[in-house]
Amino acid sequence: MRYYIGLDLGGTNLKYALGDATGNILVKLTRPSWADKSQESIFVNIFAAVEKLLEIAKENELDVAAIGVGSPGNVDFNTGRIVGQAANIKEWADAPIRERLQNRFHLPVWTDNDANMVAIAEARVGAGRGFNHIVFITVGTGIGGGIIINGQMYRGGNYNAAEIGHMCINYQGKKCPCGGTGCLELYAAAPAIVNLYISKLREAGYQENEDLISTELIFDRAKNNDVLARETMDFACKMLGIGIANVVNLLNPQAVIIGGGVAEAGEDYIGRVRRYVFEHALKPSLIGLRILQAQLGNEAGVTGAIILAADNTLNFTN
Amino acid sequence: MRYYIGLDLGGTNLKYALGDATGNILVKLTRPSWADKSQESIFVNIFAAVEKLLEIAKENELDVAAIGVGSPGNVDFNTGRIVGQAANIKEWADAPIRERLQNRFHLPVWTDNDANMVAIAEARVGAGRGFNHIVFITVGTGIGGGIIINGQMYRGGNYNAAEIGHMCINYQGKKCPCGGTGCLELYAAAPAIVNLYISKLREAGYQENEDLISTELIFDRAKNNDVLARETMDFACKMLGIGIANVVNLLNPQAVIIGGGVAEAGEDYIGRVRRYVFEHALKPSLIGLRILQAQLGNEAGVTGAIILAADNTLNFTN
Q1: Does B194 share its domain with B215?
Q2: Contact B158/A284, CB-based, under 8 Å?
Q3: What is the ipTM metric for this complex?
Q4: Which of A51, A66, A80, A169 is the most exposed place for a label (fewest CB within 10 A)?
Q5: Which residues of A are less than 8 Å from B281 in CB distance?
Q6: In whole angstroms, what is the distance from residue A231 CA to residue A227 CA?
Q7: What is the residue-averaged pLDDT of chain A?
Q8: Spatial distance between the Cα atoms of A26 and A309, rounded to a whole number of angstroms
Q9: Which residue in B246, B276, B279 has the most chain A C-beta atoms within 10 A of its own C-beta, making it the best mutation to test that interface?
Q10: Does B239 sit within 8 Å of A171, measured CB to CB?
Q11: Is B311 within the bounds of a domain?
Q12: Is the pLDDT of residue A21 over 70?
């Protein structure tokens, strides 16, 4: 049996794990990602993580076959490099992830962006098990995603597919920093939800410490029948539902999986989004469609990285 | 060498042709489709068309290996049946196309919807040659399309993918008969373009025979600097451009091919749509992206049907 190392680099933590091709995790560890340090320091930290796992593998006589790395930013899957800047890690621009890790460890290295990692993990061993065509959507500070077609990650011509947050749902809407107009994340991502609620509070003349307002607080209040919170949540769910209906009309997936911080609100949120999807999408595409909450939580990133490494190494050697 | 029969059933004509796996056409014929008659009559007409081609094949000692059929409506690719109603052919609901043709001719029969046929033809032997990930969009009375991923038709879970015309680009917009809100085809399909121009004419106090107004006339006038026609055309191009930008952000294709009656206006139209796509889509997805006019015109449907038959028969016998 062969084992794989999966890394999940984030703005705060570096998660790293050892597992098998089915996404089973034997060891999972976490350390700070040193995201505010130099690119070299971040690599040194990653090297230390990999060394730790190789040590554990050796002690247990496990054969490590490859390394998978999930990273923020636009990843060129072909070269294993970051393309341009990466969100939340200032010095990570153009980082040659594969090159550095391959030179150091003499193992095959595969790397992809973090949303794709979560998508493939959810598809294979999470909420998407048993489906072939899956769209994963993560709703947090922004809205991102991953598309699985015929059980495989679909990355697009420039490895930039699944930018679901930048779908225009209002051509008369606000300009988005991305250059587009009326993008979904201006209506349905966490900052939009918080801002909408704050503006409703102000309009109604309430005075609150606005720094304490989060989507969690809003969803909690909505549950307790705070009218403004309910309106806010309903609007966010409707916008996301319309965005997902667009994806459903375009891709006719078998399952849509919703993850990310906002989705942790659970069935109150997912159920409401689901109703709006079913209200707006074409009827033939809704037959059998499942709209599900992501299942893997915190472990999704490393699990996806392990599956990425295993998938490609198997393809590689076949 | 093996040859294939391709049929393209439309609301007016039935086109039928004999060709090879590369989409080369040897004979192409047309007859009325009898779209206003009974389902049985439409099948009798199709049978006659196939018999004619089999006769020609026999005279020329050509071996016919399979039949491909493009049809309006939602086609279940797996069973080769129409699902529900088909636009423009009243009695064609639930037509068991494969079953009827296979029983009659004892040849493998493959069937798919007409937009997919044109998409696969354009991808293989038309404007999309050389690209792997292609989105085809047809703009006419409605807006439809086809998605090619890794050179293969992508049909979705219920064979209902690529409903590009029903993408919401204005969540505050008009209700669409489909059940959605602010669908792209309410802004960018031919009837929307004609209606917008008529309303502009009325507003300006012009009196014209409104029955004579077509997208062709509007685009002609736009070319000749009719201000209202130019505004109309620009709006339609902007809406389509925003819709395509959404598709580009989601799928990051290498090429987008625009066909259908409206696109016959050519580069005046395509060029303007292209500018709006480049203004609205994410920069990394635009690198190398081609936005092209369809090339195959009238022959695309039968060519696609021939390629469909050839592709699947090859897969079938391998």
Answers
A1: yes
A2: yes
A3: 0.95
A4: A51
A5: 179-180
A6: 6
A7: 96
A8: 16
A9: B246
A10: yes
A11: yes
A12: yes
